[in-house]
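Agenda item 2: adenosine monophosphate complex prediction
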Amino acid sequence: MADLLSIDEALERTLARARPLEGEQVPPEGGVGRVLAEPALAAIDLPPFPSSAMDGFALRAADAPSTLSVVARIAAGRPTGRPLAPGEAAAIATGGVVPDGADAVVPVEYVVEHDNSVEIPAPVDVGANVRPRGGDVRAGEVVLPAGARLGPAQIGALAAAGVAVVTCARRPRAALLTTGTELRRAGEPLSPGQIYESNGPMLEAQLRSAGADVEQLPPVEDDPAAHRHALERALEADVVVTSGGVSVGPHDLVRGIEADLGVEEVFWRVAVKPGKPISFGVRGATLVFGLPGNPVSSLVGFELFVRPALAALQGAADPGPDFEAGRLATSLRRNPARDELVRARRTTGEDGSRLDPLGGQESHMIVRAAAANALVLVPRGDGELAAGETVRYLRLPS
Ligand code: AMP
Ligand code: MG
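Presented output:
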């Protein structure tokens, strides 16, 4: 057992093989989670013109305080072509173009309006309530650097700066194959000895949430020909994820048949609980993950190794897994030989995250695991982690 790879070693070997895929041009909309392969540059100055930050009156600051004649009414999107002369003001809406000649806007709350004039009772600072042209970004400047991940704010920023297409690594194509003679899909009747197949739907959701395009192949029985046929097809993808059949039993066929098909094994078995029999190999640029069939082993193995690999393929500078710090609510016994990922419920209090380990930690207990939103890393060793101790945990995606 002592010679099993650690999580970190296994992760390092995985990420060393996960090179970013080639770039493609895509619209930022709908690209949440994608990573820029090249910097995105502003197409325009933003704001594109000096713009009013308030509903009020545009004027020359030097004219205040005084009564000015109102010569125009400017709405957003409806500029006046005419510059403002001394002694003049223009009513202006938020987002309206501040006319040439004007250098300040006085909010409507601070003036006294008459029919065609406005009384400005107090002095006004130059630039007050005017958003200068290019104050957010200038044309040609970087809106987002290479490596930036697109979230809602980033997508909004690109749109505002007139960026209609960006270059991102293309989405990885993932093939998903579950193995096991005993497996049936929910909705079908179960015969004796059969169970419902849960890794297929779960891993498909995980793969999609990690940005992959997924092809789920029909589950295969523990039969060499069926495995070979399905794996040949799966190996055309960028990433192959299998579930089941990577342990030491006579029906565990995945690794042997992958080897026959030219998959070079990088590692098999990691000092982790659950998920010890996980395998990883490559064929050319294709990454091949063999997740153990126990549902929680598949869930955890994916978060530890497959999700970071998918992030790296998509160009993420820091692909994870993204461990955070929190406080353990109850003590936990350590496993002497393997690092353990304990399913827990994370809640946030004033002093940060609190992690309550859940009952039912066995690797087949996917329903118990479904109550968790975090995986607490319990490093292998003797004794226990005490309640209140700071630990590292991974969030489970919701
Ligand atoms: P294996 O890794 O193939 O030895 O499977 C380990 C355990 O996980 C066995 O109890 C299997 O029945 C179960 N199992 C394997 N694949 C799946 C799956 N796709 N969904 C749910 N359970 C599975
Ligand atoms: Mg099996």
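Discussion summary: The pocket of adenosine monophosphate (ligand 1) is lined by residues 178, 180, 182-183, 195, 197-200, 243-245, 247, 252, 292-295 (CB under 6 Å).
Owner for follow-up: CH.
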